Amino acid sequence: MGILSRKVTCNTHGQDSSYFLGWEEYEKNPYDEVKNPNGIIQMGLAENQLSFDLIESWLAKNPEATNFEREGQSIFRELALFQDYHGLPSFKNAMADFMSENRGNRVSFDPKKLVLTAGATSANETLMFCLADPGDAFLLPTPYYPGFDRDLKWRTGVEIVPIQCTSANGFRITKSALEEAYKEAQKLNLKVKGVLITNPSNPLGTTITRTELNRLLDFVSRKNIHLVSDEIYSGAVFTSPGFISVMEVLKEKKLENTDVSKRVHIVYSLSKDLGLPGFRVGVIYSNDDIVVAAATKMSSFGLISSQTQYLLSALLSDKNFTKNYLKENQIRLKNRHDKLVSGLEAVGIECLKSNAGLSCWVDMRHLLRSNTFEAEIELWKNIVYEVKLNISPGSSCHCNEPGWFRLCFANMSEETLQVALNRLKVFVDGPSSTTRSQSEHQRLKTLRKMKVSNWVFRLSFQDREPEER
Fold first, then answer.
1. Which residues pair with 264 in a beta bridge?
2. Read out DSSP for 29-82?
3. Residue 281, exposed/middle/buried by CB under 10 A (0-12, 13-18, 19+)?
4. Which of 37, 176, 288, 458 is the most buried (most CB within 10 A)?
5. What φ, ψ does residue 402 adopt, rounded to 5°?
6. Strand 264-269 and strand 282-286: pairing?
7. How far apart are CA 375 and CA 354, in angstroms?
8. Are 366 and 339 in contact (CB under 8 A)?
9. What gap in Å lies between CA 169 and CA 261, rounded to an integer?
10. First-to-last C-alpha distance (Å) of the chain
């Protein structure tokens, strides 16, 4: 193994997380209504398949875009040749307008400050390369998307220190939690370079409040650090309260064109709002010209194809389509969200109240054998192998309370979702539920905040060779 790099041989990718292990089990035995009705149903994938028909209808009505034509003439050769990594101006203009539109046109985006990337994964990693050095830290509120352990850390050498949020206040970000995370990083001799949030939150499915955004801006201003706002679910807010972008708060606080605004960066993509993860379309938006220039150069390692840009520039420039799509997609998301929530409530399972995204944050603490992460993983294994549903345990999202799970609802048909709910009902009503119920009352009376497992706090820093630290 000595002839390979330490990056290849070290165990810092995060692939051993239960989040990824659940996917592996699903891929071995995927559910199919006809071919494999006893297979595992994928509820661990935050993918939006509810509005493909709207896009397909537009494509059928706009053959010039799909045939790569302009005014009746083929532009295939033009698109097939080398393109500058700054991207097609028409696409950047259309993307900037669309980002404004799904924020209610309360803020505008300058296309010159956009950097195109191959999806939000690439955008987040590129920002880490731009904002931090190996061994520096970013603070992330928990629970957070499990893929960040890979996206932010693996190749960059950046560390993640959790901002511990709890169910006591609906997992909201508090001033004390921010300060405690900052102090924890200092104890670990890590230089904090910024805070990264997802708004709306994945996995919580909630929008960050104006109060929290003000708190975050005050915090990064005092600490002289960056704020990265991953807003890839901004168009997937389906009920009140509405979405508030950090750009709006900068505008309200009259911080535009200030040093603080240069340290606020936005990540966006079309993977969630339009349901196009396979198109690999992401963007970075930054008011710092140096960051924009450096990120643009780095984007040459993960470009969006010219054909994709051309097609989507036409799609996003059709304002009638985008207006109707956003409205209808949000209606469909709400209906599907409500079906999952009501179905879970019918079997005695509650969810955190949510208003956005493609998943629910589900409270299964009453189904645990004990208030431990070991019991959570035991329950997760039962659900994967016995119930045959792939869901994501809270520990994979670094939640500090055992018993929470993320369940996705937009990546399947309504019929498949009903099958999943029926399976859960059989499991909850099954023989083992009696034993769980008998011990539940006493367990909840003594419910206490558990010491978080070493796995939850584990930093890639601890897995590296001394030369890499």
1. 227
2. SB-BTTTBTTSBEE-S-----SSHHHHHHHHHH-HHHHTTEETTEE-HHHHHS-
3. buried
4. 288
5. -65, 145
6. antiparallel
7. 26
8. no
9. 29
10. 20
* pLDDT (0 to 100) of residue 15: 67
- What b-and-e string marks burial along 112-151, b requiring 16 or more CB atoms within 10 Å of the CB? ebbbbbbbbbbbbbbbbbbbbebebbbbbbbbbbbbbbbb
Whole-angstrom Cα distance, residue 391 to residue 458?
A: 22
310-334 tens-digit pLDDT = 899 999 999 999 999 999 999 999 9
Asked whether the predicted pLDDT for residue 450 surpasses 60, the reply is no
Active site residues: 145, 230, 232, 272
Between 460 and 128, where is the model more confident?
Answer: 128
Question: Using omega within 30 degrees of 0 as the cis cutoff, is the peptide bond preceding 143 cis?
Answer: yes
CB 142 within 8 A of CB 203: no
Write down how long the chain is: 469
Nearest alpha carbon to residue 247 among 236, 237, 257: 257
Instruction: Give dist(CA 91, CA 311) in Å, integer.
Output: 9
3-state helix, strand, coil split of the chain in percent (to 5) is 50, 15, 40
CB 202 within 8 A of CB 148: no
- Which of 88-92, 190-194, 427-431 has the least mean pLDDT? 427-431
What would the 3-class secondary structure string for 154-188 be? CCCCCEEEEECCCHHHCCCCCHHHHHHHHHHHHHC
Q: Distance between CA 331 and CA 327 in Å, rounded?
A: 6
Does residue 29 register a pLDDT over 80?
yes
pTM for the whole thing?
0.88
Cβ atoms of 212 and 325 closer than 8 Å: no
Distance set, CA 307 to CA 42, 54, 70, 143, 443 (Å)? 31, 20, 13, 37, 58
Amino acid at 282: G
| Cα 128 to Cα 66: distance, rounded to the nearest angstrom | 35
Distance CA 171, CA 176 (A): 13
* Contact (Cβ atoms closer than 8 angstroms) between residue 158 and residue 102: no
Grouping H, G, I as helix, E, B as strand and the rest as coil, residue 415 is helix
Q: For position 135, what pLDDT does the model report?
A: 95
- With tokens 């450096």, the residue in question is 294
Q: Which two tokens stand for residue 202?
A: 């994945």
Six token digits for residue 259: 């040093």
pLDDT in tens, 331-386: 999 999 999 999 999 999 999 999 999 999 999 999 999 999 999 999 999 999 99
| 3-state SS assignment for residue 283 | strand
Name the nearest CA neighbour of 341 among 205, 436, 242.
205
pLDDT reading at 13 higher than 70: no
| φ/ψ of residue 74, rounded to 5 | -65, 135
